[in-house]
C-alpha cells in the first residue's frame, strides 16, 4: 500500500490511541480544536500527496527560496 | 511537560552530544572535499564561529530570562510577528528532525540492515524518541549525562587504535588552501550546528550562569572531537577517500585492526552515533512541541506528541531521497537557509530589543 495512504490510516487512528489524554482535555475545547485541526490538515496533505495534486519536496522549496534570495542580494543583481 | 530542572552538567553533556550529532559521520567528507588536507583546520575554525553564534543565543536569553526561544519571539516582535517567526522556526526544526530520520534510515539500509524496510527502522527509532519526549526534558538530560562518559571513552579508544595507521605526511602542505577559503568553509560547516534549539531548554536550567558556561564548553568540546575525527580521517584514509566516501568516519573505523584481534569496530561507532543522533532528534521533537504550545497557547503540548511524530516521519520520507541529493543540499542549500535562523534572526531580535529599550528610556 502507498505509504501516504498508510499514514492517513495511522493518523485516523491517533485520536483513538490518545483517547485518554483527549478525555482529560475535555474542559479545554481550544486544545481539542487544535488537535483535530492538526490531524485534519495533515490528512488532507497526505491525501493530496497520494493523489499527486501536490509534490511535497520541502528541501527543493528551500533550495529555490535560498537561490532566489542569493540572487536578490548578490552584488551583480 | 515536566517542570523538573536541568543541571549545568547535564546541559553540557547535551550540548556536546548535539554538536557531534550527525556531523560525526558526514562532516569529514564535506570538509575534505572543499579544503583537501586542510579540512581539519576548517573544522578547527568552525569552533570559534559556532561559539560566536552561541554567545548570540546566550545574549538574547540574558535579555529575556525565563523565556524560551518562541516566547522571546513574541515578547520582542509582538504577538503576530512573533507567532510568524515561531512558525518559521517550527518549519526549520521540522525539516531538521525529518531529514535526520531520513539520514538514519538511509544509513542503516545502505550500510547495516540492507534488507530491512527503511520505514521500520525510522518508526522504531521514533518510538524511542516519543517515549523520551513523553517523560520530559529532564529524562533526555539524564540520558545525555549517562552516555557522555561512554561517548568520550569510545572516541578516545577510536583515536588510540587509529594512531598506528595515521600518516602525518598526508596533512601536508598545511594551509595550502589559504585563509579565506578555510574561513568560508568553516562558516559553511558552522551552519550545520543547529544549536539554537538549545534555547528552548534555557528556562529549565537550574543555574542560568553555569548553564551558559556549560553551553559554550559543550559546544567547544564537541567541536574539538569533530576536528580530531576529520584529522584522523585525512591521516588514515587520505584526502581522496575521505572526500569521496558518503560516510568517511564509518569507513575510517572499519580500518581498525589491532593484531588481527580488535576488528570491526564500526558497531561501536554506530552505537555512539545512535546516541548522539537520538539526542538531536529528540531535542527537535521537544522544540516542535513547545513551539506548537506557544503558538496556539495550548494547555498541554503532549496531546500533539503522536501527530507530530507522524509529521516527522512523513517529512523524513519527503526530505531525504538519496545520498547524492543530500550531498547537493548540504553543499548548496542548507548553509544559506540555516544562517537565517542561526545568525540573522537572533541579531535582528537583539537589534529590535536594543532599539525598543533605547526608545523607552526617558530623555
Give the oligomeric state of the chains in this entry, treating copies of one chain as homo and distinct chains as hetero. Answer: heterodimer
Give start-end ranges of low-pLDDT stretches of chain A. none
Radius of gyration of chain A: 19 Å
Give helix % range of chain B. Answer: over 70%
Helix content of chain A: over 70%
Strand portion of chain B: under 5%
Q: Count the beta strands of chain A.
A: 0
Q: Compute the separation of the termini of chain A in Å.
A: 48 Å
Shape of chain A: elongated
**Regions with little confidence, pLDDT below 50 for 5+ residues of chain B:** none
Radius of gyration of chain B: 20 Å
What number is the mean pLDDT of chain B?
A: 89
Strand content bin of chain A:
under 5%
Work out the helix count of chain B.
14
The overall pLDDT average of chain A reads: 85
Overall 3D geometry of chain B? globular
What does this entry look like structurally?
The complex is a heterodimer of chains A (77) and B (363). Chain A is mainly α. Chain A is built from four helices and no strands. Chain A has helices at 3-17, 19-24, 29-50, 58-73. The radius of gyration of chain A is 19 Å and the shape is elongated. The mean pLDDT of chain A is 85. Chain B has 363 residues and is mainly alpha-helical. Chain B contains 14 helices and no strands. Chain B has helices spanning 8-20, 23-35, 39-63, 69-77, 79-112, 118-135, 137-162, 179-190, 208-237, 239-244, 248-254, 266-296, 305-319, 323-360. In chain B, helix 7 packs antiparallel against helix 12 (266-296). The chains are: A mainly alpha (77), B mainly alpha (363). The interface between A and B is medium-sized, with 32 and 30 residues.
Present the secondary structure layout.
The complex is a heterodimer of chains A (about 80) and B (about 375).
Chain A: H1 3-17, H2 19-24, H3 29-50, H4 58-73
Helix pairs in contact in A: 1-3
Chain B: H1 8-20, H2 23-35, H3 39-63, H4 69-77, H5 79-112, H6 118-135, H7 137-162, H8 179-190, H9 208-237, H10 239-244, H11 248-254, H12 266-296, H13 305-319, H14 323-360
Helix pairs in contact in B: 1-7, 1-9, 1-12, 2-3, 2-8, 2-9, 3-8, 3-9, 3-14, 4-5, 5-6, 5-12, 5-13, 6-12, 6-13, 7-12, 9-11
Amino acid at each position: 500500500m502507498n505509504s501516504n495512504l498508510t499514514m492517513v490510516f495511522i493518523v485516523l487512528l491517533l485520536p483513538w490511541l490518545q483517547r485518554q489524554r483527549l478525555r482529560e482535555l475535555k474542559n479545554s475545547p481550544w486544545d481539542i480544536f487544535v488537535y483535530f485541526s492538526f490531524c485534519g490538515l495533515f490528512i488532507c496533505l497526505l491525501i493530496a500527496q497520494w493523489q499527486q495534486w501536490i509534490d511535497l519536496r520541502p528541501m527543493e522549496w528551500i533550495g529555490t527560496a535560498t537561490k532566489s534570495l542569493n540572487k536578490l542580494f548578490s552584488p551583480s543583481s | 511537560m515536566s517542570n523538573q530542572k536541568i543541571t549545568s552538567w547535564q546541559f553540557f553533556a547535551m550540548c556536546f552530544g548535539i554538536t557531534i550529532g550527525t556531523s560525526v559521520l558526514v562532516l569529514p567528507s564535506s570538509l575534505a572535499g572543499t579544503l583537501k588536507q586542510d579540512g581539519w583546520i576548517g573544522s578547527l575554525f568552525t569552533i570559534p564561529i559556532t561559539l560566536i553564534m552561541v554567545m548570540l543565543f546566550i545574549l538574547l536569553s540574558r535579555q529575556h530570562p525565563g523565556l524560551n526561544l518562541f516566547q522571546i519571539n513574541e515578547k520582542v516582535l509582538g504577538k503576530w510577528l512573533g507567532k510568524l517567526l515561531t512558525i518559521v522556526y517550527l518549519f526549520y526544526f521540522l525539516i531538521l528532525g525529518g531529514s535526520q530520520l531520513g539520514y538514519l534510515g538511509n544509513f542503516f539500509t545502505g550500510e547495516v540492515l540492507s534488507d530491512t524496510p527503511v520505514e521500520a527502522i525510522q518508526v522504531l527509532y521514533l518510538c524511542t524518541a516519543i517515549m523520551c519526549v513523553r517523560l520530559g526534558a529532564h529524562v533526555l538530560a539524564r540520558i545525555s549525562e549517562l552516555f557522555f562518559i561512554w561517548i568520550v571513552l569510545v572516541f578516545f579508544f577510536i583515536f588510540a587504535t587509529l594512531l598506528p595507521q595515521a600518516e602525518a605526511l598526508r596533512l601536508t602542505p598545511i594551509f595550502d588552501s589559504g585563509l579565506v577559503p578555510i574561513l568560508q568553509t568553516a562558516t559553511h560547516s558552522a551552519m550545520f550546528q543547529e544549536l539554537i534549539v538549545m534555547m528552548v531548554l534555557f528556562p529549565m536550567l537550574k543555574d542560568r550562569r553555569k548553564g551558559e558556561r556549560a553551553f559554550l564548553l559543550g559546544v567547544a568540546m564537541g567541536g574539538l572531537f569533530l576536528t580530531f575525527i576529520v584529522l584522523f580521517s585525512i591521516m588514515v584514509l587520505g584526502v581522496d577517500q575521505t572526500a569521496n566516501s558518503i560516510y568517511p568516519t564509518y569507513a575510517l573505523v572499519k580500518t581498525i585492526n589491532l593484531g588481527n584481534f580488535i576488528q570491526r569496530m564500526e558497531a561501536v561507532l554506530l552505537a555512539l552515533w545512535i546516541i548522539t543522533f537520538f539526542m538531536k532528534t529528540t531535542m527537535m521533537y521537544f522544540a516542535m512541541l513547545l513551539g506548537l504550545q506557544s503558538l496556539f497557547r495550548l494547555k498541554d503540548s503532549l496531546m500533539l506528541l503522536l501527530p507530530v511524530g507522524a509529521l516527522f516521519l512523513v517529512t523524513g520520507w519527503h526530505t531525504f531521497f538519496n545520498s547524492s541529493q543530500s550531498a547537493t543540499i548540504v553543499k548548496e542549500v542548507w548553509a544559506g537557509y540555516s544562517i537565517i535562523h542561526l545568525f540573522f534572526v537572533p541579531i535582528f531580535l537583539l537589534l529590535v530589543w536594543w532599539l525598543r529599550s533605547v526608545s523607552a528610556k526617558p530623555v
